[in-house]
Amino acid sequence: MTTADRTAVQDRSVPAKREVRPAGRGVLRIGPWVSVPVRRSSVIAAVVTLLLLCGAAVATLSMGRLGIDLPDLPSALAGDATGKNAFVLNRLRGPRLTVAIATGAAFGLSGALFQSVTRNPLGSPDVIGLGAGAGAGAAAAALFLPDVMPVAVGALIGAVVAMAVVFVATGTGFRSPGRLVVAGIGVAAMATALTQYVVYAVERDKASALTAYINGSLSARSWDDAATIWTVLLVTLPFAALLARPLSVGEMGDDLSTGLGARPGRTATLAVVLSIVLSAGAVSVAGPIAFVSLTAPQIAKRVTRSGGPHLVMSTLLGALLLVLADLTAQQLPLFDDLPVGLYTMAVGGAYLGYLLLREWKRPV
Taking a C-beta distance cutoff of 8 angstroms, is the pair 136, 158 a contact? Predict the structure, then answer.
């Protein structure tokens, strides 16, 4: 047997190497630039969450005295609604539901991006003063420019100003998560003081309306509001998808991610900017609704058992949480359509209580 024959026999006896992947995992590729690790459990959780969201949306449109009857709902959604059904779908509940879905999704994704950067389960845009700045801007518009500037525009300006102050105060922009949180707490305290002053200074009727807005409200939303927040969400989603893999690598630490070719400083800055844009867009149409951006990423992390906040699940769970909170606000008979932000505060308070109990149970 010649040397070539022996080599051929050896090659046939050695099995070809195959790429081994962990069970239940795959990679979702979108073009040549986006590749996202996917787990089977995460896909199942996302499908279940999406089904729950559809169920909550149907309940929002059909429950209550003014709800659309379930047999009439498909034709109404197809554009054949008339009379009361047309009013409920086009003016009363349709825009409100559409705004709730996109706003909750924006808050959830915003919180996931921010928590990925800070690596802190209590990190959210609320912590860095964005919500408080939006409330102060809304309050200032109501007090100083009541007939000139809409409250929503004032809220957007207030959020932008608050983030500009935080950017300057840190001395490093948005690249240092620790300084970002400290500066945000200070800005939030000053903004809250201004808001409380305005609430006491304006007339009682205006103060009631302003209080509802700064607590977060979905009442009397329009299709223009829906177009605004959906535009913000759809524009930012591709950029968030591009950041998915760098953020996953960044969970291993700055030194290791730098060694793997990532740029943690640039990734952190882009993630914070996207988080601010999403939160500012949501605040402009619904007010500073609290705790959705805090709780949705943490629930997503536990549902998917991922190492860090899961962007897709955080987006879906944010939408689900806000739609359920708004459904409760509309249908709970004990209260008369309270601002939806009060219900999300209750959920957030329960979540913080859970974290505290978990810390108590840990051995010292």
Answer: yes
